[in-house]
Amino acid sequence: MESNGEIESSLSRSNGGEDRRVGLIFDERICKHYAPAEEDHPECPDRILAIWSLLNSSGLAKRCIILKAKDVEDNHLALVHTKKHISLIKSISSVNSESKRSRLAARFNSIYFSEGSTEAASLAAGSVIEAAEKVAKGELDSAFAIVRPPGHHAVEGEPMGFCLYNNVAIATSYLLNERRDLGINKILIVDWDVHHGNGTQKMFYKDPRVLFFSVHRYDSGTFYPSGHDGSYIMTGEDSGAGHNINVPWEHGRCGDADYLALWDNILIPVAKVFNPDMIIVSAGFDAAIGDPLGGCRITPHGYSIMLDKLMEFAGGKIVMALEGGYNLNSIATSAWACVDVLLHGKAPNVVSEAYPFASTWRVIQEVRRELSTYWPVLGGELPEKTINKTTQIAILSSDYEDKTEDIVLSVPEVPTIEDVIQPLSNLKIDLDSQVDQEANMKPSWRSELSKVDVWYASYGSNMKMSRFRCYIEGGQVEGMMRLCVGSMDKSKPKGIIWKTFPHRLFFARERTATWGPGGVAFLHPNSNVQEKTHLCLYKITLEQFNDVLLQENGLNLETSHPLFDSAALQTIQTEKSILVELVQRGWYHNVVYLGNEGDIPVLTMTCSLSDVDNFISGKFPINPPCKEYANTLITGLVEGEQLSEEEASAYIKEASSKPL
Ligand code: Q9C
Ligand code: ZN
Predict the structure, then answer these.
(1) pLDDT of residue 427
(2) Ligand 1 centroid from CA 286, angstroms
(3) Is 611 exposed, middle or buried, given 0-12, 13-18 or 19+ CB atoms closer than 10 A?
(4) Is the CB of 109 under 6 A from ligand 1?
(5) Which residue of 66, 149, 310, 380 has the lowest C-beta tally within 10 Å?
């Protein structure tokens, strides 16, 4: 038995004993596993340093119980790995030429070795065991093993996908097989790494004591580790039938709304029935927003809600083990958000305005159907009104407070790295050079997106050519209360055409910075055959489209990332609309795809469906446009030879008065 005294004495709480006992395992020796210098590998030692630095500088680490890493014992490795695999990993430290190690590593899928790999792998596996054992004993309420190399791709007989030993599987097996005395008989493994946990799945595929849940990008079996092991039809075998749950996203860009829909409609209901004695999280942070490999969009706040929802099980006995995650800022802030939840067991309560993708509901329904024979709680269709709220990818946002400006830009409640990492001085991340680059040169997204054409479809004041030109060339026309900066690329539209679309035009909000008091135009994001709205289409580049989107939402053009990139352009053609989360507080943050003109996609920007709900309920005001604004629209329609002046006035009047 470990002495409780040792742990108690290392406790130092900053908030009067309200914190739960959270263990953190960190050990610098784990940095001795690194890729050959010329490789510039994403799975690098800085990952754990970034997390550790932020936990310290933010003050969270000192509220936790810090534990040193422990080496794994051979017999514990042997619970899930073959003798051959174990001796391979152990042999690496004695292979002392880099070229020999490279040749050895090349025999495996996505693996590198350094001289210190043996030690790091041993410490990673040993630490997750240590964390799990202390939580099982009740010496800790929960723990986070900040370890690498990661583990969930490693299979019985070989390393794979940056993983040497399967750390989580080893700890799980250890508790279930070697420490029956601790009373942990059922373990839920939640693998939220963006990649499928193929190794872990295999190890417990027939084991009913383990409920393995993995949510990952699948992309029809093309996303790493590729193949069909990550399919939802893989539900477990023999007595483990039903105890393997895969949720395979069809594409990237999934964010908080998608993951929360999944939590609420699959994971949490099943966890209630399974009633685990402990939860082990394969906590990769490569589904985080900003990750270079994942392409998903979970915010730190999203992670905190996902984790918080798990806290109601097993008396909060949660062990987190780091897996992937390759953007240093993203993994540090995500880990920070998780530790914060472990400490007080409550995620900040924020109302979600966002809806999942249509494809997310599709996947959730498929998984529910597949598993409902094992988990009756998943039986029955989801309510129409739930699954109809779709198509928008987004993050959580707070309520609109300020209704007096076009945009309400306030401090986001999710801390950015700038909010929390600023005080870090001992961190060797090359943040500065990145910032310099962004300040001095045109970011590369601009030249990339300047090669792509889109039709930007306008239904408001931009129908008037001279007004729209302010967004391209910069300027201010009659009735406008402020100057537009214009786009970076000031070249004229390559074409202009008019079309009508079956979407409702309406006017809402109280006043705008540009036009003063009165509502501004919105297009209902959903189509309706009863409606016929005139839109003026400008053929501009995707780069210019981004600059229009930025200006419409009151943002600065000096942005290091596009709001709407080529991937978004791909996605929107199946999803119909995309909520641009970076401008979630802007009014025109919903980009809607209206079809193709020739072979060029037609895009417009409007409010989100949830805003429409708020306009209907009266939470946000509906208002006719002010005179100057209405006149701009009318002259736009007249100059464009779409309607006579009388017809145009009647058209605007109808849109301003007809109930939504
Ligand atoms: N074309 C983890 O996140 N990618 N592993 C290889 C080869 C490997 C990710 C791409 C990604 C492994 C733990
Ligand atoms: Zn991963």
Answers:
(1) 32
(2) 10
(3) buried
(4) no
(5) 380
